[in-house]
Write a structure and sequence with these properties.
Elements: H1 3-21, H2 28-47, H3 52-63, H4 66-76, H5 78-86, H6 97-100, H7 102-116, H8 119-122, H9 131-136, H10 139-154, H11 158-176, H12 185-206, H13 214-251, H14 257-282, H15 284-287, H16 290-316, H17 324-347, H18 356-386, H19 390-417, H20 423-446, H21 448-451
Length: 455
């Protein structure tokens, strides 16, 4: 067995290991056990005269599909899975004392997040009268507590903690140090972009500081999709709770609206940010399949909608309206399309061949690319007529960033569908592009107010 063969074989085993890590039913120890079996079979096959690549393929084939293995492990370890669902505080053998503290630490972080949004009120800043202050600082109430939760859970070192603290401090300075008027465009842009920038800071804590790892960044993308589902479910439940609270107290002559608007809604929303993350971590084996299912449902629908829109544009020869609100709607549409693409990539089984869904995704990406070009034409038209402003410059930059992503994604997807490029190239492109989003969000928060004279 040569050095090159060893390297190739280890690379194939590493890819197989990364794939097993996506099966949340399989614990780390389960993966190690399966890898031991895999290596033993490879050794047996190579000793019988097969080459490394032949031995690897046959060994994987004989072990069966991971979906089957996952189901077998789920049945075998049903007690462990059930404990994950209903007894989050009960220690798992694999986590020991760390697992016993999981629930209290989550409650502490959620409480800190809930109380953080009440701190400005102690200094005379009212949630209603000073709404722009709360909007600018929205990302600073719950996300530090969430980052702290993951820093504790991943047991990150002091250097990572210092980096996280420094980034949140920079975010606080960017939101509050500039003399921005309440109605300035920079205020609105800060309110939109600072939570995005800080969410990616949370990603650094989520991956335990290992931000250079493509696999860990893909894990964070997967986590983000599942977190959105949990947060939406909690928001729906919170809405029902709010309605019952107001209605029941009103029935006995007490007005609960002040408590609801001043405490229940803001504190509950901030706490839900942490609770949703804990639910993803603790109960991921239950809901984790929802996000891929939703992605498979909405990807064809969005692809059909975008295609219908492009056909309508070609049929009527009408361009996109240059009104700002219309352009914002299109930008949101493109962001949703990008989210669908990201999550579909993160959830794809690397061992399956290309199929109809991959081609639908390619249609979705190409359609979004054409629409992004039309939006860019509309934005440049507004800029040539009215000049640069913070809003128009931010929109221009974001659409150029999306255009670059979609164009290269379409090329990689085409190569994958034609069987000329591996799917991992597309994965690496998307995970590494996260740094571009983070960089742009920080530029908008920190540099735009200075460039546009705090307009």
């Amino acid at each position: 067995m040569t050095l090159d063969n060893d390297t190739d074989l280890e690379g194939q085993i590493a890819q197989w290991r990364a794939y097993t890590h996506r099966r949340r039913e399989l614990h780390h120890t389960d993966t190690e056990e399966l890898e031991d079996h895999l290596r033993s079979r490879i050794t047996e096959l190579t000793e019988s005269g097969l080459r490394d690549d032949e031995a690897f393929l046959i060994a994987v084939k004989r072990m069966g599909s991971l979906d089957t293995l996952s189901r077998e492990f789920a049945r075998e370890h049903s007690g462990r899975l059930w404990k994950q669902l209903v007894l989050p505080g009960e220690p798992d053998a694999s986590t020991g004392g760390h697992g016993r503290r999981e629930l209290p630490v989550m409650v502490l972080c959620a409480t800190v997040a809930a109380l953080a949004i009440k701190v400005p009120a102690w200094f005379g800043l009212d949630l209603s009268d000073d709404a722009t202050f709360y909007a600018r600082n929205l990302g600073l109430f719950a996300l530090p507590a969430l980052a702290g939760y993951f820093a504790w859970r991943r047991q990150v070192g002091p250097r990572v903690v210092a980096v996280l603290a420094a980034l949140f401090a920079v975010g606080a300075l960017g939101a509050n140090a500039y003399p921005l008027a309440d109605d300035s465009q920079s205020t609105v842009l800060t309110a939109i972009h600072l939570p995005l920038a800080l969410w990616l800071v949370v990603g650094v804590a989520y991956v335990g500081g290992d931000w250079r790892s493509d696999r860990r960044r893909m894990d964070f993308i997967r986590f983000t999709g599942e977190w959105l589902i949990y947060f939406s479910l909690l928001a729906l439940g919170g809405g029902v709770l709010t309605a019952f609270t107001v209605g029941t107290f009103e029935a006995i002559g007490l007005d609960a609206e002040e408590f609801v608007s001043g405490w229940l809604l803001p504190c509950g929303a901030m706490a839900a940010v942490v609770v949703s993350a804990w639910l993803v971590e603790a109960k991921q084996s239950v809901i984790e399949n929802m996000a891929p299912v939703l992605t498979r449902v909405f990807t064809p629908l969005f692809a059909a909608t975008l295609l219908a829109f492009l056909v309508a544009v070609a049929w009527t020869d009408n361009g996109i309206d240059v009104e700002r609100d219309v352009l914002i709607v299109f930008d949101l549409l493109l962001v949703i399309v990008l989210g669908l693409l990201l999550y579909a990539i993160s959830a794809r089984d690397l061992t399956t061949r290309t199929g109809l869904f991959d081609r639908v995704q390619l249609v979705l990406v190409v359609s979004a690319l054409v629409i992004d070009l039309l939006v860019l034409l509309a934005i440049t038209g507004r800029i040539s007529e009215w000049g640069f402003s913070p809003n128009k410059t931010a929109a221009l930059g974001e659409n150029v960033i999306l255009l670059a992503n979609l164009a290269w994604s379409a090329w990689l997807f085409l190569g994958f569908v034609r069987g000329r490029l591996p799917f991992t190239r597309l994965e690496r492109w998307q995970t590494r592009y996260l740094t571009v989003y983070a960089g742009w969000a920080w530029v908008v928060v920190l540099a735009f107010p200075l460039v546009f004279d705090f307009a």
